[in-house]
Amino acid sequence: EAYQAIVYNKAALALFMLQDMLGRETFEAGLRAFFERHKFGAARTGQFIAAMEAVSGRDLKAFFQGWFYSYELPEVTASWTVAPVPEGARLDLRLTQLKGRFVFPLWVECVVAGRIERNLVLVDEAREEVSIVLPGRPDKVRLNPDKAVPGKFY
User: Rounded to two decimals, what is the model's pTM?
Assistant: First the structure.
């Protein structure tokens, strides 16, 4: 039962992450293309990957390697600094994956003057540096606020 819960839950989360990465319209177009091509027949994971790659124009093998072919989950350390810029403030985010390399979309939530700002960052390297321009200095920064990416974030 534990194996099934992990496998099915991880796969479901991976599909939601893929939708975040590709955008809803592209993701749904990929699903339609996949289902149309394979309706009334058997299909393999590789065929699903090929359909999503064809529709998105992106190489998704690294994404699927971590989420479909590995039992591990990411462990990520994060640090950030904030610098003033003419538009408000720049959040410089540094992410380091401690176990392997996963590709995933990471939501970054910042509270600026009581208003929530959400930005989507594509993490596709073992070490990633990203800058996000905000309308002001953030009072609070949260990574993965919805727990959409399974794993540990420090």
Answer: 0.87
